[in-house]
Write a structure and sequence with these properties.
7 helices; alpha/beta; binds S-adenosylmethionine; about 210 residues; Rossmann fold
């Protein structure tokens, strides 16, 4: 699937940032702990890290046994993630614009875990994308794990940490999940653990959001 003109602009912006050597908040020890409270070991299960950047979380999920697809719009970030080597078996990186529909070749309706760390607020239609993940990407009982700044404080003044509005959080949490858990992380960041219903139909269709 090609990337639209708007997508190319987004891509160029992120590429420039990664070329400066920018590193976003490194994974903290708390994050894997929170994740592990809600997931089982990943052996044989599919995980997608949406907006994977330089791949720290994707590598960690892979080390836990998941078959992982890391997706990002920045080729510079993906090059850094791959460090000039072919990724190991069961870990791959895809260049894709999450605003442009579903990525090719991910097993729709069979994904156990989707992570979206510091990326959701950058998508053009965050709630629409989340709905698509729930209805089409995740298997019944699968989890979407979001880490996002919320608007206010620091989040409001640093564009790379743009946040979601409270109203967006309410909309996302109210979309028909089986279970929603949230944790605050510092003064302006939220974890959302969204578990899809176990009685959800596997895949509701393959169009856009
Ligand atoms: C703040 S960084 C977070 C990166 C990584 N998740 C982390 O925690 O370090 C946001 C990431 O989202 C990616 N991104 C932004 N818009 C995107 C889009 N429309 N499709 C795919 N990736 C996107 C950027 O390239 C960037 O790598």
């Amino acid at each position: 699937m090609g990337i639209s003109t708007a997508g190319q602009q987004t891509s160029a912006r992120w590429d420039d940032l990664y070329r400066t050597g920018w590193n976003f908040r490194p994974l903290s020890g708390v994050e894997p702990h929170r994740l592990n409270l809600h997931t089982h070991r990943g052996q044989g299960q599919h995980a997608v890290d949406a907006g994977c950047g330089t791949g720290a979380l994707a590598r960690q999920l892979h080390a836990q046994g998941y078959t992982v697809t890391g997706i990002d719009i920045s080729t510079v970030a993906l090059d850094i993630a791959q460090r000039g080597r072919r990724p190991p078996r069961h870990l791959r990186y895809l260049h894709h614009d999450l605003d442009g529909g579903d990525p090719p070749c991910i097993p729709l309706g069979e994904i156990s875990l989707v992570t979206c760390r510091l990326t959701l607020a950058h998508l053009r239609n965050a709630a629409g994308w989340v709905k698509r993940v729930r209805t089409t990407w995740l298997r019944p009982g699968g989890i979407l794990f979001v880490l996002t700044p919320i608007v206010g404080g620091l989040a409001a003044v640093q564009w790379e940490y743009e946040g979601l509005q409270q109203s967006q959080i309410v909309e996302i949490a109210g979309q028909g999940w089986g279970k929603v858990t949230s944790y605050s992380h510092g003064s302006n960041t939220l974890y959302l653990v969204l578990r899809s219903r176990t009685d959800a139909p596997a895949v509701e269709g393959a169009g856009g959001t």
